[in-house]
Structure formats: C-alpha cells, structure tokens
Write a structure and sequence with these properties.
Length: 303
C-alpha cells in the first residue's frame, strides 16, 4: 500500500490537522475541490493510518504524525482536555472555512499567545482575521458562554492596546448589548456565526461603496472627514454604510444625533441587518441595498 497522501489537497489537510490537532469531519470538505468524493478521500487517508476518527473529529494517526514530523509541519501534540478540545474545534472550524480563501487569512490564538505570559494566555480572543490586509482581533460568544464570559470579552477589548479592529462571532446577536461594546475603537463588528455570514465576511472590505453612493446620491456627497459618518455634503446629508453591525459606528451616530437633535442620518445597509439597526437608530433614514451587486467575488465552485 502507498502510505503517502495523494496530491496537494490531502497534504494540505494533514498539515492543517497537524497544526490545529482536531477537525470536525464535516469541515474536511473545505480542503477538496469536489464535495462528491471527499468522504472517500478521507476513508483512504484513514485506511493508510495517516488520519483516524475520534468520534466526529479527525486527528492524526500514527503514520500521520510521522509524516508531519518528517516534512517539518507545524505540529501540536493532541490535547485531550475536554474544554480545550471544544475550543480547538471552534478554531479549526473557522480556519478550515477560510483555508483556501484569497481574501481572508485566519491565525489561531495558539499561534499568537506567548505561553510564558499569563496575561496573554488568560485572554479570550480566538485569533486574528486578516481581511484584505486589515487585521481584526477575533472573539467568539457561543450559546454555552454565560454573562460572565461576555463580561470578560468586554474587559479584554477595553484593555487592548495593539488592535483597533475587532470581530465578534455570536450564536445569537440578541445577547449582545450594543452600548456595552463601544470603547472608542475603530470597528467592532458583530457577525452571526453561520455559513452565510462567514461567506459574506470574505468580501467585507471588497464592497464598492462609491458605486452605491453614485447611484443614490448622484455624486453630490463626498468622503467624510467626520468620524460619525462615511459620506456627507457638509450641509444636511450625513451618510453611514453598514455591511455588518458595527457597534462603534452605531455609538458614534447615536452621539451625533443626541448632540444635534435638529439633524438626521442616512443609513445604507443590507436587508439582513436593517431591523437590528432600526432598534438602535430608530430616527435614521434607511436605504436598503442588495450589496451583493456591488462586490467583485472570486467565486469558488464545487463539483
């Protein structure tokens, strides 16, 4: 039997698991160009003892470990702690989703944190998402996390000195109090953790907002120098754009409207977040746009 992987896709999968330790079997599809046959490829890797099943997860088997060490992959010995395993699975799920993405790169927290510094290892961030060259310190709040954990995330962000852009994955956006996540940072983006939202994140910094503005304002507004809006005519138009919920931007608009009760704000957003924004900014004027039409996508097509 040939005990080596077949091709770059299988090598990429082994390299990934060598680094992340665990991968849910359903996330293995992101490593193969054909969804139709990837399970057969997995069975072949398992039969070669390069991988083995650990319930619903994939880990390196004996020959997989030897292969990783032989070719000097980044290798992390399997951690069997139940709570930490759950965290590793969340990290690997995100890493797998963006593994072959040209616009997003995910660096997991275990590759960032200095294990000798307690204040770093005790923090709650799960990694860094680089989206078109902009780094976002990333957190995740799941349904298993209680209010104490959310308070720890808030404290984490408050004391952050290096990063000014953040992404928070949430299972339920209703658990987030928008006013609790405003600290004077650049962006704090709330993303509901599902397949559609993760896919949209690939194009977060690829929207041609100038085309949107041209369509609805006929070039009569300009890029704003104000922090509370993105475009303005410096008279009576104050326009802010949203692709996701941005708690910092919402807070800046709230402050502007509170201090200028004779003025109003225009909000350009997609249908998915319109109602959430209206809860926070009920007096604003809303322009709901299909933003998919203003994004140049590199579509990945599976067989």
């Amino acid at each position: 039997m040939n005990h080596f992987p077949n091709g770059d896709e299988e090598i990429s999968l082994l390299k990934f698991i060598s680094r992340y330790q665990y991968l849910n079997v359903n996330d293995a599809k992101y490593f193969f160009s054909s969804k139709r046959y990837y399970k057969k490829r997995l069975r072949n890797l398992i039969s070669k003892r390069l991988l083995r099943r650990n319930k619903l997860d994939l880990v390196l088997d004996e020959l997989g470990i030897d292969y990783a060490k032989l070719f000097k992959f980044e290798y992390n010995r399997l951690n069997r702690n139940v709570k930490y395993r759950a965290r590793l699975l969340r990290l690997s799920s995100i890493g797998a989703f963006y593994n072959n993405c040209s616009t997003v790169e995910f660096t997991p927290s275990f590759s960032i944190k200095d294990k000798k510094i307690f204040t770093m290892t005790a923090r709650r961030f799960i990694g860094i998402l680089d989206i078109n060259g902009i780094d976002y310190l990333t957190y995740q709040i799941t349904e298993q996390h209680d209010s104490k954990y959310i308070a720890c995330v808030i404290y984490d962000i408050q004391k952050e000195k290096t990063y000014k852009n953040f992404i928070i994955f949430v299972d339920d956006i209703e658990r987030i109090n928008i006013s609790d996540f405003a600290f004077g940072m650049n962006q704090i983006i709330i993303v509901e953790y599902n397949e559609e939202s993760k896919e949209k994140l690939k194009y977060f910094n690829s929207i041609n907002w100038s085309k949107v503005i041209e369509k609805y304002y006929k070039n009569k507004v300009y890029l704003s120098e104000y922090k509370f809006c993105d475009y303005t005519n410096y008279k009576d138009k104050y326009i802010s754009t949203f692709y996701y919920i941005d708690t910092e931007k919402i807070n800046r608009i709230k402050y502007f409207l509170r201090e200028n009760n004779n003025k109003n704000a225009d909000i350009i957003c997609c249908k998915e977040i319109e109602q959430q924004l209206k809860k926070e900014l009920p007096t604003a004027n809303y322009i709901v746009v299909n933003l998919e039409e203003y994004i140049d996508k590199e579509r990945k097509v599976y067989d």
